[in-house]
Amino acid sequence: MPRTVRLAVIPGDGIGPEVVAEALKVLRAAVGDETRFEETHFSLGAGRFLETGDVLTDDDLAAVASHDAILLGAVGGVPGDPRLANANIERGLLLKLRFSLDHYVNLRPTVLHPGVESPLAAPGDVDFVVVREGTEGPYVGNGGAIRVGTPAEVANEVSVNTAFGVERVVRYAFAAASGRRKKLTLVHKTNVLVFAGGLWKRTVDAVAVEFPDVAVDYLHVDAATIFLVTDPARFDVIVTDNLFGDILTDLAGAISGGIGLAASGNINPDGRFPSMFEPVHGSAPDIAGKGIADPTAAILSVALLLDHLGLADDAERVRGAASDDIAGRDGSTRSTSEIGDAIAARLAP
Amino acid sequence: MPRTVRLAVIPGDGIGPEVVAEALKVLRAAVGDETRFEETHFSLGAGRFLETGDVLTDDDLAAVASHDAILLGAVGGVPGDPRLANANIERGLLLKLRFSLDHYVNLRPTVLHPGVESPLAAPGDVDFVVVREGTEGPYVGNGGAIRVGTPAEVANEVSVNTAFGVERVVRYAFAAASGRRKKLTLVHKTNVLVFAGGLWKRTVDAVAVEFPDVAVDYLHVDAATIFLVTDPARFDVIVTDNLFGDILTDLAGAISGGIGLAASGNINPDGRFPSMFEPVHGSAPDIAGKGIADPTAAILSVALLLDHLGLADDAERVRGAASDDIAGRDGSTRSTSEIGDAIAARLAP
Ligand SMILES: CC(C)[C@H](C(=O)O)[C@@H](O)C(=O)O
Ligand SMILES: CC(C)[C@H](C(=O)O)[C@@H](O)C(=O)O
User: CA separation (Å) from B188 to A69, A275, A336, B227?
Assistant: First the structure.
């Protein structure tokens, strides 16, 4: 009997639905008969908010959470849309999902695919993974303000870091490094953020003992951005907090040919909650509906989904097909669905 | 009668004393007879800590503060030196000076000098200034931890932002943009750090009304790193918080040929406290004492010092001399003092 995977699909806004359609096409082409995907599509995002005033209700959350995995396109309306001024779709939807579903590993691989142009003159062999913590740090929403709008306003943001939260993501990162080139770089700002930084540093030092084959390195976040443009090939696995990971992965996407190619997984390694896979790019309302968005990042996110489901061979085939397609790109424009079709065709049995 | 400027000189550690010596050489060559620099040299940094156990005493601080301006080389010992394990020279010295002397503008110009190689394939015309807030944000040292070293540890860091602090630096940035290409980009992370981000955004919107000739733009910090490698020429003045400014200016240094060329000013525009000028680079203990450090960043910091003292012509001449020297560099190595001599010679009357 085939295994059934219940997949929650959140196409979202802007180019989200367009790239998700291609990702699903590739997903279906990739898996053999032993796996069947049962899709539930959820209408969530800025569009839904404008219709109903809801961002993510408790019922939505429970329904999404009852699935085995989640594929998300992109969410967010047109910047500056006055009707969205008081809706924070990012916090209310994307971050709410990540936090509620305990996605403590935000996995963001960076590969400079052959044939892709980097803005760097001599990028070298770029192939690393950022393991970004997903449920703590400055993202917890633990801020507040007093006397708002007056000259005496004070606005605070609290970064919360726990041994519980740091240790589990650090251990995941070490395991990832152990299965790769065995190098782990902690990125933080220990000389300024001494309390959070101290916890991260001590945790890495402690877990390192369990992984004697992994070489450990530390960089301040500012220095890490320098190396990402002068010597990105030095990195194998980077482990870092939620905010630093956000910054470093956009930069990593840029040096490897643009976030149009960058995939990500929001992973709950315990399996208590469904993990969520999404391209790093946003909803790009300016090019939405034109059929010109590049679906590659969404397709590479499907590969991460397959990895997560234990279908490593299928994941490798998707990555290979995408990589071959990328290598053959000659600058002529293909539509979103042409790219999806081409990659799916490479997976035909 | 010549004007006397009382200059506190903090050579610091590593290559600090070497580059400061050249910076002073250039300073002396640059100014005419109407200005006399009266130097007081302070022995502060990791070296001093190892000798006396003191980082910056109240007496040190008072003595430094009694000067008209400060020139700092670099502070910090050899990474991993066990004797420094419990001394945070950065917080205890550098940040203590910035906070005590109310250096609320951390000014960091980025110019890709003709002849300098960028790691970017097509950098374009890079010429922007980052106005980094210097006395608030996650740098305030308002953190703490409980149950340290146990599995139940919680470590927090608080970013403190005030209307008072944000408005003054935003106003400074607008004035700077007004005197340049009239474009200001606010960088923050308003979609996640909603309280701090809200304060920054509202403040920029409010001050913008006073500067109708300045075009205002907003970027999330993650997106800003992308543009810094794909289109750095788009920036004129960037205004941002302490931590984002730290990250963006190292990246900015990297794309413009390395932080070996990056100058900075820690400025108290009110003039209540002396402003402090320092290269962005660190003490680089690995190359210290060899006479091979590039003093250009320290020399360009002297130009910022001259600007601050109202000696704009002298500042321009220092920048011109440094720029000419840089343009003539052919990859052959010159010693630290040879570079200082060459730039000083260009300033000879
Ligand atoms: C949209 C935003 C909240 C999000 C983040 O900051 O995590 C995005 O930048 C990302 O990296 O997935
Ligand atoms: C040394 C460190 C505290 C400092 C900072 O983070 O501000 C440095 O990186 C800088 O940018 O001047």
Answer: 32, 28, 32, 14
* Average pLDDT estimate for B318-330: 95
Select from A19, A299, A259 the least CA-distant residue to A118: A259
Closest ligand 1 atom to the C-alpha of B189?
A: 6
SS3 A146: strand
Residue A215 burial (CB < 10 Å; 0-12/13-18/19+)? middle
Q: Catalytic: A325?
A: no
The yes-or-no answer to whether B1-103+268-349 and B118-256 have a common fold is: yes
> What was the pLDDT predicted at A87?
87
Identify all chain B residues contacting A148, using CB atoms and an 8 Å cutoff.
198-199
Residue nearest ligand 1's atom 7 by CA: A246
Ligand 1 near A236 CB (within 6 A): no
Q: Closest partner residue to B225 among A192, A196, A250, by Cβ? A: A250
- Which residue of A195, A203, A281 to mutate against B (max B Cβ within 10 Å)? A195
pLDDT digits (tens, 9 = 90+) for B225-284: 999 999 999 999 999 999 999 999 999 999 999 888 999 999 999 999 999 999 999 999
Nearest to A116 by CA among A262, A307, A302, A312: A262
Q: Name the CATH superfamily housing domain B1-103+268-349.
A: Isopropylmalate Dehydrogenase (3.40.718.10)
Q: What's the confidence (pLDDT) of residue B32? A: 84
Residues of chain A short of pLDDT 70, as ranges, are: none
User: What pLDDT does B33 receive?
Assistant: 87
**What integer best gives the mean pLDDT of chain B?**
96
Mean pLDDT in residue range B169-183: 98
The answer to whether B88 contacts A164, with C-beta atoms less than 8 Å apart, is: no
Within 8 A by CB and 6+ apart from B75, the residues are B10, B12, B13, B16, B44, B45, B46, B89, B90, B93, B94, B283
Annotation: CATH topology of B118-256: Isopropylmalate Dehydrogenase (3.40.718)
| Fold annotation for A1-104+264-349 | Isopropylmalate Dehydrogenase (3.40.718)
Of A48, A58, A53, A50, whose CA–CA distance to A10 is shortest?
Answer: A48
User: Is residue B86's pLDDT more than 90?
Assistant: no
Query: Which of B131, B72, B77 shows the shortest CA–CA distance to B101?
Result: B72
| Atom of ligand 1 lying closest to residue A249 CA | 11
CA–CA separation, B100 and B268 (whole Å): 10
Query: For position B348, what pLDDT does the model report?
Result: 85
Q: What is the DSSP letter of A91?
A: I
Describe the strand order of the beta sheet including A3-12 as a list of residue ranges: A35-41, A3-12, A69-74, A275-279, A263-267, A105-111, A127-133, A237-240, A183-188, A215-220
> Ligand 1 in contact with B191 (CB < 6 A)?
yes
Residue B118: what residue type?
Answer: S
Listed in sequence order, the residues at least 6 apart from A62 whose beta carbon sits closer than 8 Å to its beta carbon are none
Domain locations in chain B as residue ranges = 1-103+268-349, 118-256
Whole-structure pTM over 0.90, yes or no?
yes
